[in-house]
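User: I'll paste a sequence; please echo it back and then give the predicted structure.

Assistant: Echoing your sequence first, then the prediction.
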Amino acid sequence: MNIKEWKIELRRKAEAERNALSPSQHSVKSQQINEALNKRIGEILDSCAKPGHRPTLFTYVPVKSEVDVSAVTEACWAKNYRVLVPKVQHDPKQLKLFEISSHDDLEKGAWNIPEPKAGAPEFRQVREIDVILVPGLAFDTQLGRLGYGGGFYDRFMQQYVRAGWDKPYIIAAAFDLQMIKEVPMGLFDFRLDELITEARTIRAAQTGGLKNG
């Protein structure tokens, strides 16, 4: 089995397990995750608040059985921090970012995934982003991430690599059942700085190491 086939099989299993959560389990676990996630992202963005710089979060809009991270965006809006969400572009394949100020700035787009409404201000200053909250299907303790297969986030992160810029802080929220032994990593796949589940928090060595909670 090559790496592509391995990833396809892992995605299938991970999505099936996540979808098997009951509504009550999903709600309780999401709330536990959000308490830790909100605190952590708040700490990081608060530390980035400086004259002339507005703390900026690039996040995803949760769909289906993903962890509902809406509380994070709401906390950012309450502090007047900038919130960016992506819109998928297919030619060329890339993510374009738009600033939103409330959930009302979203509408159903491709595959019924909420995305910024027409007219939302596009954001191009990617070096201004402080934190990226990324989605994913499976993760491992080495902070590897298995995405949905489109490669959009991998391509987005490569902008920083090619330009020689420091990356934003990369964090993910997941249910603990999404943890697997090993995520197969390709040349352009990126690792997280931190992963938060309802059972534990894992941080890269340079940002504090493993923290069980």
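The CA atoms of residues 165 and 197 lie 29 Å apart. Residues 209-213 have pLDDT under 50 and may be disordered.
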